[in-house]
Amino acid sequence: MVTGASTHLHELLRAKVIAPVRVGIGKHVTINYTLRTNGAIRHIRSAIWGDEPLEYLHGSGRLLPALERALEGKVEGDRIVVTLPPEEAYGERDKALQQRVPVETFGGADQVEAGMCFLAHSEEGHRVENVMVTEVDEQNGFVVVDTNHPLAGMTLEFEVCVVAIHDAPATVGRGKGPGIGHLVDGLETKA
Fold first, then answer.
1. What local confidence, expressed as pLDDT, does residue 183 receive?
2. Beta strands 79-84; 156-167: pairing state
3. Assign residue 177 a region: left if phi > 0, alpha if psi is -120 to 50, beta otherwise?
4. Rounded to two decimals, what is the model's pTM?
5. Is 14 exposed, middle or buried (0-12, 13-18, 19+ CB in 10 A)?
6. What is 19-90+152-172's CATH number, 3.30.70.580, 3.90.76.10, 3.10.50.40, 2.40.440.10?
């Protein structure tokens, strides 16, 4: 009887030890996350709220590089908290990205108020930018618009849970929803 037990133990020892799949370049990763700025929740993507987890191809540039680095080597079930200062996220606010435009530019809007966001074409008409109205001076006929990223100048705190890691299928990035760069309309990383 002892021989049967020792044979079983020997078979277990010979069995392949399967290492957990880790987040790495080319892996298809699924995460849930909460994003906070100044302690206030800005965005939650969680099954608790009925959201589908975010799926992305690790190393594709879809996430902020510092967040991707923090996720590197993690396994399913890992939970991390990552704090990104502005220089590792969307940079500091740049006054050069603010400009005065004539209030007539917004002729199609009934009322223009600070805090409103619009899509604007570049002067060449090739690019579309998200602009936020930061000031309205109706008496002098101008509006100040800002093309800084909405999260520029902010420290971002991500709480992330790795849901799944797989080899990337050929269709990754098609129809799986936006990346973290799209948390707020037009939040993608700027090239």
1. 45
2. antiparallel
3. left
4. 0.71
5. exposed
6. 3.10.50.40
